[in-house]
Design a protein that fits this description.
heterodimer; A: 130 residues; mainly alpha; B: 56 residues
């Protein structure tokens, strides 16, 4: 798949997940899987909320990855994608803490908690209902 | 002792957790993209598992 450039928040997420992997002594596969979980969740949430006209545009390029990516990037507001991405990232951290946190010291768990994104209060997005 | 609560945290392995979450996430994406795009996103070029590259 052609890479057309990074979202700034995605690079920040990669750095946070890399730090997380260091904290819990995991490797590259963990990092790749975690980024995939957050990213694919974000994509699924976003496409369920976009205008049907955007879906029609995306449909035209489903077999052309570069065009599909650029259509997604130009037709869906970055702020929307950013807020949804950060929400899923923070949910992933919460899930990791609740399901695996018993394996680590409270100090490590606090460091993991600190990796969460600060959410914007001005986005106006209602992300509670899925 | 009364008044002191310990936060309950699981002891699942992070590898196991990722495996579970990834399976659920890809499954959900397959269902939703299937509804919106038909079978097209199951195409190997734009496969569900590769969608994350949109963000990186």
């Amino acid at each position: 798949m052609v890479n057309i450039g990074q979202y700034p928040f995605a690079e920040e997420a990669r750095q946070k997940i890399t730090k997380l992997a260091e904290l819990i002594k995991e490797g590259e596969q963990f990092i790749e899987d975690a980024l995939k979980i957050v990213s694919v969740s974000t994509f699924t949430t976003v496409i369920k909320r976009v205008d049907p006209a955007v879906i029609e545009e995306l449909k035209k390029s489903v077999t052309t990855p570069g065009l599909f990516q650029s259509t997604f990037r130009t037709k869906v507001a970055e702020q929307t994608v950013s807020e949804v991405f950060k929400k899923h990232f923070n949910e992933y951290i919460d899930k990791l803490l609740s399901e695996t946190g018993g394996n680590y010291t409270e100090e490590v768990n606090k460091e993991i908690e600190s990796l969460k994104f600060q959410m914007s209060l001005s986005s106006g997005l209602s992300l509670a209902a899925k | 002792m009364e008044g002191e609560k310990t936060l309950e945290r699981g002891t699942k392995s992070s590898e196991e957790l990722n495996k579970e979450l990834l399976g659920a996430t890809l499954g959900d994406a397959a269902v939703e993209t299937g509804k919106l795009f038909g079978e097209a996103l199951l195409n190997p070029i734009t496969g569900i598992g590769e969608l994350f590259r949109i963000f990186f």
